[in-house]
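User:
Note these tokens:
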Amino acid sequence: MEYFLAAPAIGLADWWRRYRRRRQDEMEAGMGDSRRPDRPATLKDVAAAAGVSIATASKALRGGYKVHAATRGRVERAAEALRFTPSRPPSDLGHGRSGTVGLITNDLEGRFSIPIMMGAEDAFGTGGIQAFLCDARGDAAKEREQVRALLARRVDGFIFVGDTTNPRPSVGRDLRVPVVYAYSPSIDPADISVISDCHGAGRHVVEHLVSNGRRRIAYIAGDPTFSAAVDRAAGATAAMAALGLTFVGGGPVFGNWSEAWGRMETRRLLASGEPIDAIACGADQLARGVLDALREAGVQVPADVAVMGHDDWRHIATQARPPLSSINMDLRELGRTAARLLFHAIDGVRETGAHTVPTRVVPRLSTGHPEHVSPTADPDGA
């Protein structure tokens, strides 16, 4: 099935119109311009007014580039004064591009893919881009068919949104438009990919637990056929080693992503008789199973054992008993980064390789932080 999304949200468009009306009197009273009154401002006009090159003006207005704050402010003020409103990324004006991109996912209802696509849509809106959204449902043949159909519509580029962090096959280099891979990186290092920092996330888990006085830490990991499970555990193991510590039991224990696995492994840990003061988990589902097993055994969280999850899935983390500390992957920023990299590539600047988006700790009561029991800002927890 194919969907068409007008990516610039109505709220953003309304805000822009209201903002221009509020600024109307000020712009007419000052900072006038010498253009013909019947010609709208161009990027060249903005650059000239700000005293910068067209390329610098484009970068300043687009965002995501390293432009000096004073220069960016000068360009933005010039754009406001000239009433410049790009209908697509600034450097695309006059190049005959369609102002559309293809956004192809393998899991339209997925926990991870939706916030990534929302972040990409945020970035598309700032450049006036519209997105054709397709769900390939994990079918490579369907994905190829969708690529052909969207190329026929003259899209300017593609973002492929994965549903796991496992590397995926490249669609190749024969497409006439740029491609960015989000969440699931391409196996080809010459492609452009955006990934979550799973290794750094594992490090954050250990650092958070140790900073709260925990030393006897066990680690319950997910399915080892998923790179996310392996990388998160590797990051946590490296952090423990750097602190001169080892996990209870010798290292992370892998299983699957279910609550049942979290309960089963927690019961085994308790039965072993080894002292434990924290259990780190590779996913929030695992952590909820851990909390169940500890409660059944009369173990107090966090007084006796602290528990930490990963993914910051709001419907699990904030409703757990007690609310669950977790790792937020900032999936919307991952989507925004993918869109910015696609903009750059459309402009001819291909930043190949894997671009990593950092994660952050969201502390809640399960590790002793009652001040953080409120829900996360985004309903998807990303």
